[in-house]
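Assemble and predict.
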Amino acid sequence: MFFAQLKNELWKLFGKKRTYIGFAAFLFAQTAMLLAFKYTRWQSDFERLLSGNGYLATEFISVLTVSVVMLIPQIMLLMPLYATLVGGDLVAKEAEDGTLRMILCRPISRLRLLLVKWSAGIIFAVVLVVALGVTAMGFASLLFPWKGMFVFSPGQAFSVLSAHEGLVRFLFSHLFLAMNASVMVSVAFMFSCFNMKPAAATILALSFLFVSMVMENIPFFDRYDNFFITHHFKCWLLIFIDPAPWTQICQSEIILVAVSATAFIIGSMAFQVRDIKS
Amino acid sequence: MIELQHVVKKFAGRTAVDDLSFAVPRGTIFGLLGHNGAGKSTAIGMMLGQVWPTSGVVKVCGFDVQSHRRAALQPVGAIFETPVFYDYLSGWRNLEILSTYTAPTSRTRIAEVIDWVGLTGREQSKVSTYSHGMRSRLALAQALLPKPELLILDEPSDGLDPEGIHEMRQTILRLHRDLGLTILLSSHLLHEVEQLCTRIAVLQQGRKVFEGNVADVKGARGKVALKTDDFVRAAELLRARGLITATAEDRFVTLAEGRTTAEIAQALVATGLPVAGLWQQEQTVEDFYLNLIKPPSSAAGK
């Protein structure tokens, strides 16, 4: 029954037009960034950076390099927005519309219902990330050749990889990106379980992520980096470093799993004691 | 089928339901009446495990809803005042989705229920294209899917046109007669309640102020219509003899305890007052309800 319920939850989720806002926004942003990279000074600046570090720029301005260049800002800005938009809707929208009341007059436990909804949210997060990666590579391959990979993110990664090694790590990085998106969905889902409007749940989740990011970047809090989840979101970039700092990556992933589980538990507890009224 | 024992529900210091107790026997159509905010929907919410009682016990089909929600709600179907669905999906898909929250339901069963409520041919259309009446029928279909023994209807005729109200009434009677369902009906339409229900409970400000059979309510001592040339004089005479206790609208009298219409007629004829008509008015549920919930100030004035 769980899988039948999950299948139906996915029907509900992917049947809604607003679920696709994120996908549409990513497509638009990727097209704009691709054209900007190709036809503005962005590409020449990048080439200068490579040359300045002793690399032959023409060998590394490739599909994989441009894909990561396009992904970084989208992961930071767009992904939280669309992941929390869907996460915030999962319970609160149904409560607002009144369909939750109809579901809860049936003999399904509240915990089971939340588990189904949360699982659907996680699946959405994975699909969003996969779509992001596939479209980034697809779009980049229209204008750039298949060559070596160069990844640069100030303070995080500076790495030059062969095309094969780059592709493996690019694919692997999506596992961690999916975890990031899942945590964003989970935080919004947690707020969604409280008695509030879906927009409020989304805004609260975004505020939580924003505050975490701001505090993480305040020099005073440098020593407390580990307490901010946005710090752990960056571990997807660490995978491109050679050799990859696996201990740090694993530590971050464990913390993200724990945050996600905690958000689910808090949300479930709030939902369990809540009165569902029209 | 439903049993509430001393149930109290408070929301942030406000008491929505206060020491409510009643029972809905198997096989009845039970009406729950009360003004807006009387606590009907809260009581129904507690029966369906959506609202947690502050104290007291709510049992459905013999199971405590708080501790054995699954067992309690297994044979229950419910409809709420405004039928809400996933508008962007078809009626069929909506039924499929809702049925999985109870038990696996075959396509044959879904088709059977769609046919029963008269939605055949429109089941693949998006719910956003449905009229209010069609939504009500879909709501009924989702309630019937798990083959319920108990149906809880919270304002099922809300927003329907007269034809829709009539159709809903006939459907409820059909459900009771053909499927033998026990039905709890919360409604503002007192005429509808009178036609459908065998027993009623009236809530006022969260408290039960009446519970009894509709037949008893209708058969209760009501007003007596008196048609005579001089109503005022007749009323004075009858009052002086202790035969009536009150008058209304210059044509109704209320009999004193133990008095009959025959005694009235006898008294008037004996004094030479012609009686053109004298008959007992049957009390409607509406009369009864309005008298029951009449504010104390207005009651004292009459």
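Residues 94 and 161 of chain B are 24 Å apart (CA to CA).
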